[in-house]
TrEMBL record:
It holds the Pfam family CVNH. InterPro entries: Cyanovirin-N, Cyanovirin-N_sf. The keyword Membrane does not apply. Keywords: Signal. This is Cyanovirin-N domain-containing protein.
Amino acid sequence: MKLATGIITAAFILVASGTADALGNTIDFTKSCEDDLELVPGLNDYVLKATCTGRDKQDYKTELSLNGCIANNIQGGVMEWKDPQGLFGTSCNKCSLSGKERNLLTCACNASNGKRESSQINLDKGIGNNNGVLQCGSVSGTRSLT
C-alpha cells in the first residue's frame, strides 16, 4: 500500500508540471509555455528557447539542445526521438518551426540514398515542461528567471 501511495504521489507531481507519456516522460510543453518559441541554429545543433511556467507559477526562460533527443534515421532521412544524444543536427539543416502552436519542427535531412528529404516531427510528443525547464526524456535544458 505504501508503494502504491508513493507511485500515485509521483504521478500527480509529474502531471502537475505537464502531461506524461507511457514511460513517465513529461511531454506537451506548449500547453504550459508561452508563444515566444525560438529555434536557434548552432554548429551542427538547434536550440529551442521558450518561456515556461514552473510549479511556483513563475515564468522562466528555458532552452534545450535538440541534439540531445532527436536523431535522423538515415535510412529515410526521417527525424525520430532518441534519448540521449540523437545528434540530428549533424545531418539535418534548414530547420524551422510551424503549426498553430509552433510545435512542428521541419528540417531537410540526409538520407542513405544521397538525397535530402523533408522531415517533420511534433515537438510536443517528446518535449515537456518540467517545472519551468524544457525536458526531453533524460535530457534537461537550462532555465533562468524572466
